[in-house]
Amino acid sequence: MDASGQPIGKVDLRSAFGSSMEIYGAAGESLYEGRFPAFSSKWRVMDAGGEEIGQLRWRTAFFTKRFEYDSHGRGVYQLTSPAMSKEYEIADEDGRIVARFERVSGWMSAGAFRLECGECRIPPLEWAAVILGMNAMQKQASAAGGV
Prior knowledge:
Layout: E1 9-12, E2 21-25, E3 30-35, E4 43-47, E5 52-59, E6 64-70, E7 76-82, E8 87-91, E9 97-103, E10 113-117, H1 124-143
Antiparallel strand pairs: 1-2, 2-3, 3-4, 4-5, 5-6, 6-7, 7-8, 8-9, 9-10
């Protein structure tokens, strides 16, 4: 939803057993797809034509959750959060905070996030694909005994 409460799109998680998903605009048009390629821990974001437009990877850090999103020519962004926090900041290559998001869902419920975008070259629904990829990475790590 936008600031006025109007829907700007929807997410199709495709399957309860997989992690791939697709994001549609308000008119129902496919905009983005996110998934893990076979045997890879990197989350790929594709546009409606299936072309990869970005890649999310987990970065090792002590006492913080850190991810890096390479938007293929539009900048490399750092997504960071203190270890036990549900709030994240997204910084561009110059260290400027361009967006913030927080997990608003409970521990046992499906991941739901609130995103606030500032000036950024990445559209909000692309950030949604990135954030859901980050959530999928955390779920995989948790299932494997990590995080």
